Amino acid sequence: MKVYYYFFYKFYNFWELISFPAFWSDFKAIVTLILLEIWLLFSAFNYYSIYNNSRLEVKISSPFLLSLLIFIICSKVYLFLIDTKWKSYHLEFNKMTKSRNILLGSIVWIITILITINFFISTYYMHDLLKTN
Predict the structure, then answer these.
(1) pLDDT at 55
(2) What is the 8-class DSSP label of residue 78?
(3) Which of 10, 76, 81, 118 has the fewest CB neighbours in a 10 Å radius?
(4) CA distance linking residue 55 with residue 52, whole number of Å
């Protein structure tokens, strides 16, 4: 769980840095985490469809997808808006050495970039599958 809080910490600091004036950075970090998880979820659906060479019919109104999306959103709201445990982790992460913070931050950004690239690649291959069927 500490790793997850570190992802939030890096996104929170990112939004604090680039927002002028800095406001709602916690909300923006939550939205970033939600977006990455949704991209992972849809990448999995895309790869499943590609592997089986058939389109997986997933509608936004399907109970399975709705329950997953509600779980993703509610867990973030609870972890980062209702429960304030992340603030103690935030202080702990601020005390890390600069070199360790740079190393771990690089890992976070590499994973974020890979998730983003993966989503768009899976969507591209899924689009090719739909054109051939």
Answers:
(1) 74
(2) I
(3) 81
(4) 8
Share in percent of the chain as helix, strand, coil (round to 5): 85, 0, 15
Phi, psi of 61 (to 5 degrees): -90, 0
pLDDT in tens, 106-123: 999 999 999 999 999 998
- Residue 24 CB contacts under 8 Å (≥ 6 apart), including other chains: 15
Q: Pick the closest to residue 96 from 30, 1, 7, 6 (CA basis).
A: 6
In the structure, what pLDDT confidence band is assigned to residue 58 with cuts at 50, 70 and 90?
confident
Longest Cα pair distance anywhere in the chain, in angstroms?
55
Rg (CA), the chain: 17
Q: How far apart are CA 6 and CA 10, in angstroms?
A: 6
